[in-house]
Amino acid sequence: MPGEGPSSVAEILFGEYLRYHRLRASLTQDELADRAGISVRAIRDLERGRARAPQPRSVRNLVAGLALDETDGQQLIELSHVEPQPEPAQPSSFPVTGAVCPLPPLLPDLVGRARELEWLREQAEQALASQVMGVVVVHGAPGMGKTVLAVQAGYQLEQRFADGCLFLDMQGMDPEPVSAHQAALRLIRSLGVPEEQIPAAPDERLGLYRWLMRDRTVLLVLDNVVNEAQVRPLIATSPGTLALITSRFVLTGLDTARLLELDLLGNSGAVQLLSAITGRDRTNDEHDALAEVVRLCDGVPLALRIAGNRIASRPRWPVHQFAVQLADDRRRLSLLTAGDVQVRAAFELSHRLLTADAAEMFRRLSLVAGHEFGLELAAVVADQPSEIAEVALTELTDASLLRPADTPDRYTFHDLLRLFARERLEAEEDADDIANRVLRTSKWLLGLASTAARHFDLDQAVDQDVLAAFPDQASADAWLTGETSQWLWAYRLAARDGRHQEVLDAAHALYWYADHRGTGELWYEFFRAGLDAAEALDSPRDQAAMANSLTWVLVFLLFRTDEALDVHRLALRAARRADDQIQEAWANYFRAGIARIKARFDDALPFNERAVELFAAAGHSTGENLALTYLGRNKMLLGMFDEAVLAHRQAIAQQSSGGSGAGSDVGLAVMYRMLGDTLHQAGHLDEALDAFDHAIRLLAADATFGIADVRLSRGAVLKDVGRLEEAYQDLSFSLSAGRPAGEIRVLSMLAELCEEMKQPSLARDYLVRAVTLFSSRYFLIPKDQRELLASSWGIATRTLDS
Questions:
Q1: Is residue 245 located within the same domain as residue 126?
Q2: Please, what is the end-to-end C-alpha distance for the chain in angstroms?
Q3: Residue 504 domain-assigned?
Q4: Which of 323, 346, 369 finishes a domain?
Q5: What 8-state DSSP symbol labels residue 12?
Q6: Contacts of residue 175, Cβ cutoff 8 Å, sequence gap at least 6
Q7: Residue 410, C-beta contacts closer than 8 angstroms, at least 6 positions apart
Q8: Would you place residue 357 in the very low, low, confident or very high pLDDT band (cuts 50, 70, 90)?
Q9: Both 78 and 160 in a single domain?
Q10: What is the CATH number of the domain that holds 49?
């Protein structure tokens, strides 16, 4: 049972509600701009989430322009509220005479770190109530703004500590960092001890420091620490004191420390920071160019500050020009320089401390595509044994040059660090060696992707070689999903280099996997490259297979039926030229799909029947059973329920008796799901539920997408029979699985269901999200479905063009 409020739907944003109400009011963006006295660009940016909510007066104008009632108007106003950044406390003098460790000057434009500041406030409160010194380590990659955050926290928190704040730069990146003994001497002086009373022996100084700290309550900020040994002696028995440590290193050896990783700024925070530096007028006038600068700075605060200062210092130069220059990967780090502040220099300080293995791993990881990768791929690209690679990755992670991903043994690498690593690679390694390393890595990726995809093949049983690499479908799926950007990069590289047979082998291998994961855009590119390779090799059979695959993408994932029809004709010609009955059968199968998407169900029937006939003649049981299933679905759409059920049961019987491929249970589950859909339409609700339950039993527990499809269908039946709570659970699961093709339908059904369950607020949230997705994907949805959905929500389709 859903609780009060939008607890079971992703957080609804101001812009989504604004778009929802505009569409419901049948207003274009231009029309709303006229009514509210707000620019069209501002409304566009708000709806896209590219700008923060406007000032209260503008929100009231929007409410009036939309003619919202009191409830909806108040909700929009509440969603517009932005938590103000806390005003930094003004520096206060340290209460001990002779203090020589004051905080550095405060930067006025810290943004995007409100959550981190709140966490530090909580740690301060806990330390004040503790009988031991509290220890917090703020760690992160170079340029993340650790010092800026610590200084801001120091100004905000120092007045809570009776003896104020002490700040000490430990110079961890210098050739000779400040030692613990040197730090103790400086801190003793800051606590007002006369020079003549300070012991000469280093250990005695540490003892005096600890003795002085026993009765003091201090915020001790130790900035730029290189390792645990540098600060461990400074952690004293000091009730009510907090040591706030910043470091590029994680410092896991400090047993009592609480860790806060400072990560890249999100897009909103990055925009705010750049806007604060460049000025609001420039942000409004050159929004797109500044947005591109934000993207290229990759959320690194140091890079954003440098870029902002460069833009602000050249007020007459167009921002677009700087963005174009910054887009050049080979110039970006050089351009991110302002005076003596450089992004590259910040990275070099960390790089020079690496061991040889870690430095080798770091530079070679620049060849890896995408932001995330696993241990196995890192070992391959670095050409290191797994045990050495693991140690190197740990060192890089501890140095914040990599960060651990959410999944064990996986890591992420942000773009500016990757550019720096690539510079080091090209400076230290031979170009031919780099090219050979790229080739070996891409071949390894394509080979392993093809092996993993065999777990999804409906035509072949899984052999021992596959099981040795991936013991089950779940592990294969996890690898293919986690390394999508990597094997796609390898595939593109093979296509670019004209390695046609490798491209075709991978395309054939991943054919059935494509039905489980990925987007229409991904698979369009994938099978388009496969078709190009088949044509380059002048192989009619491969041309037919690739054209059929491409037709499937165009019909069922992209709904581009006119283009699909042209590709289908190519597939049919190639299949006949190759005298390949199976590919000719698939061509008829997908031709029926085109007619079905166009809602021409009578036209689809002969192609359905021809596909069944050709598959049977060729002895291709998987194809025949799927064709029978879709023949049944088409007959259901024509209202021929008895014949439809018969076709489904025939397909199930044949699949149950003869299915031997890796995905035979998956195929059988699909057939039971479609039988259940037909029984639902025919009004046989109990039998439909039995069919769906049977489908779920056939699927592995981790077959998320397949189960989501079945639970979507079952949720619709449960809703019709009045089992609303169970229906809600099924539909919620289907939504959480992230199946893009059916997301709008699920959201709409959940909205209707929540209305029946007397949850109007939650119903509205689901409906807002449905309308938001519908408007953003409008032209990707079949025309008949567009009109039907828009009509059901009371939306004029003319407003969707704006």
A1: yes
A2: 38
A3: no
A4: 346
A5: P
A6: none
A7: 372, 373, 374, 375, 404, 482
A8: very high
A9: no
A10: 1.10.260.40
pLDDT score at 92: 33
Structure tokens at 390: 């693991």
The Cβ of residue 447 has, within 10 Å, a number of other Cβ atoms equal to 17
In this prediction, what percent of the chain has a pLDDT beyond 70?
90
Q: What is the pLDDT of residue 93?
A: 31
Count CB neighbours of 199 within 10 A.
Answer: 14
Tell me which of 29-43, 316-330, 788-802 is least confident: 788-802
User: How far apart (Å, rounded) are the C-alpha atoms in residues 581 and 40?
Assistant: 56
In this structure, are 325 and 450 located in the same domain? no
Distance CA 609, CA 627 (A): 8
Residue with token string 């806990």 = 126
Is residue 413 one of the residues assigned to a domain? Answer: no
Enumerate helices (H) and strands (E) in the chain, giving the number of each: 40, 10
Residue with tokens 């730069």: 169
User: Is residue 233 located within the same domain as residue 289?
Assistant: no
Residue ranges making up the domain that contains 461: 430-475
Closest CA to 24 of 601, 791, 613, 635: 791
Backbone angles phi, psi at 789, to 5 degrees: -65, -45
Residue 318 has a CB neighbour count (10 Å cut-off) of 13
Burial class (CB in 10 A: 0-12, 13-18, 19+), 275: buried
Residue 635 in this model has a pLDDT that exceeds 70 = yes
Q: Which of 177-186, 365-374, 534-543, 781-790 has the highest mean pLDDT?
A: 534-543
What pLDDT score does 45 carry? Answer: 67
Higher pLDDT, 453 or 64: 453
Predicted structure pTM score: 0.71
At 90, the pLDDT band (50, 70, 90 cuts) reads very low
Residues 434 and 540 in one domain: no
Look at residues 477, 492, 666, 508 and name the one whose alpha carbon lies nearest to residue 586: 508
The count of structural domains within the chain is 5
Check residue 282 and give its pLDDT. Answer: 56
Pair (190, 237) in one structural domain: yes
Cα distance between residue 553 and residue 485, in whole Å = 19
Q: What is the CATH number of the domain that holds 182?
A: 3.40.50.300
Domain CATH for 595 = 1.25.40.10
